[in-house]
Amino acid sequence: MIELAVLLIFLVLILLLVVKSIALIPQGEAAVIERLGKYTRTVSGGITILVPFIDRVRAKVDTRERVVSFPPQAVITQDNLTVAIDTVVTFQINDPARAIYGVDNYIVGVEQISTATLRDVVGGMTLEETLTSREVINRRLRGELDAATTKWGLRISRVELKAIDPPPSIQQSMEKQMKADREKRATILAAEGQREADIKTAEGEKQAKILAAEGEKHAAILAAEAERQAMILRAEGERAAKYLKAQGEARSIQKVNAAIKSAQLTPEVLAYQYLEKLPKMAEGSANKMWLVPSQFGDSLEQFARSMANKDEDGVFRYEPATVTEETKEMAAQENVDEWFNTESDPEIAAAVAAANAVANKPVEEDPGAALAAKTAAARDNSSDIPSLESPHASVPAQFPVPQFDQAPPTEPQQ
């Protein structure tokens, strides 16, 4: 029994020695090894052989990147307002031995340094700057912490301000201020919108009035131009009509004179015609009495003596004058088919078509230049219009006037 007990004790000692000589370090952690109370080495990830009862694991350190959130810290700003700021620090242990031997508690050290640095940074800023300068604060906190914790074997990778909470009264004031600013911006935007709308409306009305005035101006110009052209055409038509009427009366007189001469009438025929017309002259309602002069025969005799020749028998006989060929041609019947032609003159039709084209032409962009051009053209045209006061004025080409080759011959009185 004693031997068995000794064997069991021996086996327990061997098992204890094996346990003490082997250390298992998980991945992502590092172990600080001491030998007889003095640092010897740092091991990580795997099985480590130790000298039993001489070597020991002082501490295991997590070498992964860690995120630590610190509770809110009361910080006084430059304008004497107390704000609560909580921070989040992201760090990683690069040297486990320094983290164990360089500082008692590196987490507390990081918290205290971040709090002190935060108070120093925020103390030089106003509340407004603090709320709008998160990036500046984060960058300064990271620089200060990284410089202070390098000797502890830590690397500060990121520092963030999680929240900045001003006092409730300040928050209410800020909310009121923000609400007032938003209402102010809304009022300004509404006023600017109304102003822009009024400006656009006024500009639209201005353009509409300008266009309406230009349209009325163009219409008045075109109406005046049309009235002017119409008056010119009417004057030319009246002048041509009077000229044609005078030419026609002159031609009719020449025609009657030529017909009378060609007929070679005698005084007897004229006397007969005179006597034949006497009853008709007496048919007037105002003619109550008609007297034939007693010396009417003597008058005819005197007329015969002056216009006739006395023959051998002592009788006065009228011998008509010799009719020339020109008088016969003038007394001949003319072709009057064209007198009743109702077709329009091609030149007049062309003038009407040109007037329609001008009326349908769109209004020019520059009415002043167009009016100047029209005035110059009208002045040029008016120089071609003959004066009605001139006795030698010619009839325009659009009103053809028949011309006679020569005036009818006149017979000398005998």
Please sum up the structure shown.
With 414 residues, this protein is an alpha+beta fold.
Q: What is the radius of gyration computed over CA atoms, rounded to a whole number of angstroms?
A: 68 Å
Q: What count of helical segments does DSSP give?
A: 11
The chain-level structural class is alpha+beta
Q: Biggest sheet, in brief?
A: 4 strands, antiparallel
Mean pLDDT score? 76
Task: Quote the distance from N terminus to C terminus.
Answer: 208 Å
Number of distinct beta strands: 9
Shape: rod-shaped
Strand fraction equals 15-25%
Explain the overall architecture:
This protein is of the alpha+beta class and 414 residues long. It has 3 domains: 2-62, no CATH class; 66-166, Tetrahydropterin Synthase, Chain A; 174-264 and 320-334 and 347-414, no CATH class. Helices cover 55% and strands 17% of the residues. The chain is built from 11 helices and 9 strands. It has helices at residues 2-21, 96-101, 106-122, 127-132, 134-149, 168-263, 267-281, 296-307, 325-331, 346-360, 367-384, and strands at residues 22-35, 38-49, 55-62, 66-69, 73-76, 82-93, 154-165, 309-310, 316-317. Strands 4, 5, 6 and 7 form a 4-stranded antiparallel sheet that branches. β1 (22-35) and β2 (38-49) form a beta hairpin. α6 packs across α9 (325-331). The longest helix has 96 residues, at 168-263. The protein is rod-shaped and about 225 Å long. Residues 382-414 have low confidence and may be disordered.
